[in-house]
Prior knowledge:
This protein is α/β, with parallel strands linked by helices. Helix content is 42%, strand content 16%. The chain contains 20 helices and 15 strands. The relative contact order is 0.09.
Amino acid sequence: MKIDGAIFDVDGTLLNSMVMWDNISYDYLRAMGKTPRKDLTDQLRERSLYQAAEYFISDYGIEGQTPEQVMQGINDMIEDFYMKEVTLKDGVLEFLKKLKKSGTRICAATASDRYLVEGAFKLNGILEYFDAIFTCTEVGSGKDTPEIFNKAFEFLGTKKENTYVFEDAYFALLTAKKAGFNVVGIWDITTDLQKDDVKNAADIYINSYSEMEKYMMKKVLTIAGSDCSGGAGIQADLKTFSAHGVFGMSVIVSVVAENTSRVIDIEDVSPDMIKKQIDAVFEDIGVDAVKIGMLSTPECMEAVAEKLNEYKPENIVVDPVMYAKNGCPLMDPNSIGTLIEKIIPLADVLTPNIPEAEKIANVKIETVDDMKNAAKIIYKMGCKNVLVKGGHYMGDAVDVLYDGTDFHCFETVRIDTKNTHGTGCTYSSSITSNLANGLCVPKAVEKSKKYVTTAIKHSLAIGKGHGPTHHFYDLYNEGIKWMDRD
């Protein structure tokens, strides 16, 4: 679910205000010392506010008041409610924060007066999240016609397929639906009798805004080889995705028989099957970020490049895997040219370790300055950012990020352990997850550096060789932290 534009109804959708509207006539009469009769709602159903005021004067004996004064008294009560009492529906503030952080443009489309809405929004601290407020009075039509939704949509400037209308009223929901918008139906106590109608007509129905999280989970694809021992490759990628709270999908390009000690054999998937796997993901589910790992042959690289150029996803992270942790080659040496020509230009972030950066840039790396020089050379090959990882460099673990203008260095104390199987896969998958969750590249790398360092620090002594990192250490100990994207 991709929400670029959101159009919110106000009463009953964002605010717990519909009960007030249903009871305002009763509350006014009680404030005037009168006891409302059981037929009050039926009597007022077909009357305008002015006619209702006349009815109060004549049938309830409100003396010394003109209809205008009665209406002013009712309006004063309404205004007092919006400015001092009205509350948000559950989860509204948190949901608006997430939308705004992800770059969504937000409007309100309401039948209430602007000053009431702005007052209620200020009272509850949400006015700052709205790019515009449209009212039926200002637009000149109610929600039985689509004008107010179309006005808001025109202002948002988003694609209709990525624009969602949030409504609690069945008739307004139908209007938005017929106008071609995606519609989220919201439960409200005053529309409970229409719940089934709203639920059946809406694309999504929720009782609370906290339920939107399951629809907004980011979707991340890994294109790589599998590792039957579970520490690297596709298996490490999917574990990392899960640890970051994103939905992981995979395209397997090679089946690798390996363990912590050695690579026994590699069997490549046909280019045609690689392309069909990519089609299957993009034509149905969609993707918020892509991690590319082991691509063993030029034919494999060409198949991946063809499809990614076709679908043009955002947030592509390329980990140019060439060797297993034990030194066994995972890429055909004759593939370097195709990697440089076809794959590197796709990368929003390229993450070579030092041996890989030396191979791609054709330079020797012995110092941090050498890492920076290699990053400059590789950047000119067409990627947007280069992260040269210093895990193979003596001293502290220093990684160098270059964006074509500036360098960012990320340094941690080197951890004395041989259990680092899948470190590169885990690091790049973490970066991919963080990009999908809305972080900028330097922040995504910074958080991923912390994540992979923790995973190495608490690595698992599994197998006879290089054991795997602990992908879920933080999750097991502290719970998922991915929703905090600051």
